[in-house]
Amino acid sequence: MMAREAKLTPVGAADGEMVQIRGLRRTFDLSKPWLNRVIERSSRVSLTAVDGVDFSIREGETYALVGESGSGKSTIAKMVVGLLKPTAGSVTINGTNVWGGKSLDAERQMRRSIQMIFQDPFASLNPRWRVGAIIAEPISAFGLITDAKDRAARVGELLSLVGLDPRDGQKFPHEFSGGQRQRIAIARALASDPKFIVCDEPTSALDVSVQAQVLNLLRDLQQRLGLTYLFISHNLAVVRHVATRVGVLYLGRLVEEAPARELFADPQHPYTKMLLEAVPDIDMEGRERQAIAGEIPNPVNPPSGCHFHPRCPARLPECDQDVPVPQHIGDTTVRCHLFDPPSQP
Ligand code: SF4
Predict the structure, then answer these.
(1) What is the Cα–Cα distance from 141 to 245, expressed in whole angstroms?
(2) Does ligand 1 lie within 6 Å of residue 323's CB atom?
């Protein structure tokens, strides 16, 4: 395998960056209660779901995090929006540390400017509330519009914005299809006028025929409202249609990051190549689809060195011992020993 020549460039904040994730880490304690451990003579068990992840998102772009189930992508999403505290590292959005101490006012402002769209539109909408009340809730909670008439008009505007009828605000969530419910969830997310939205597998619970409509809506809204997205997905075919940049996760580590066009045209990391070979041939190029080889190992006891080494067709002698460090090749960052600079004599 030929590796592209590695050219090291400094890592740091650049102009236009809205979100900066630095050294993000999250471990979970899976130990049994103390008494059980004493009786069974077992030790503590911990799982590192996210292991020192760094990336930045520029204003107006869609940054996609991809990986198999258990790669840590949803854990990252929760830490970014403030739902889960990191064990270490920082999340900075528009210069404010999501997990740093801040005034109530700054906290409120930050909560308003970040929203999340969840995978399951059936679970994320309160079934007992009318759609109008669901969408109006963030408007009231942040005190954005106090007059009831004006608030109702804003709800109608938001419903139109996502392609629904303003009169749909009178109905209940169960009266809508899956795709329509996801539109309602998007309208609700837009109600607080956010600039940054985390989309956690927003189309994976929907029929394939509806997925493209929701993705087109998200893209259209991004252009009209100047939104920035963090897009979480296991589906590279979906990511290909929406992403500006892509980060590939494997067992909690970012193994490759690149502009979407480059990643799909010329993937570098052996794991990214494996994922891409398994994507259905949407361009009808006659390419044969290869199944992903092996399974993601148990994250409680991950393989040493490069976590991917037991599945890697290109593995080197050092791969089961040494953790690869990020190497920068133009706009691509890759963590793989194939790209290590030659050692000095
Ligand atoms: Fe394969 Fe080694 Fe690269 Fe890991 S570091 S992806 S095992 S070649």
Answers:
(1) 33
(2) no
The model's pLDDT over 216-258, given as tens digits with 9 standing for 90+, comes to 999 999 999 999 999 999 988 889 989 999 999 999 999 999 9
Give the model's pLDDT for residue 12. 41
Our answer on whether the CB atom of 334 is closer than 6 Å to any ligand 1 atom is no
132 in ligand 1 pocket by Cβ < 6 Å?
Answer: no
Cα–Cα distances in angstroms (integers) from residue 56 to residues 63, 212, 228, in the given order: 9, 27, 12
270 lines ligand 1 (CB under 6 A): yes
Contacts of 301 (CB under 8 A, 6+ apart): none
Q: Report the pLDDT value the prediction gives residue 3, as an integer from 0 to 100.
A: 40
Q: Give the mean pLDDT of 333-340.
A: 96
Is the beta carbon of 154 within 6 A of some atom in ligand 1? no
Cα distances from 288 to residues 284, 312, 332, 335, in angstroms, run 10, 20, 26, 27
Distance CA 183, CA 172 (A): 14
Backbone angles phi, psi at 58, to 5 degrees: -85, 155
CB atoms within 10 A of CB 213: 15
Q: What is the pLDDT of residue 345?
A: 65
What residue has token string 């909670």? Answer: 141
Instruction: Give 271 Cα–ligand 1 centroid separation in angstroms.
Output: 8
Phi-psi region of 331 (alpha: psi -120 to 50; beta: other; left: phi over 0): alpha
CA distance 102 to 205: 36
Query: How close is the Cα of 303 to the center of ligand 1, in Å?
Result: 12
- pTM given for the model: 0.88
- Reading the block at residue 15, the tokens are 């102009």
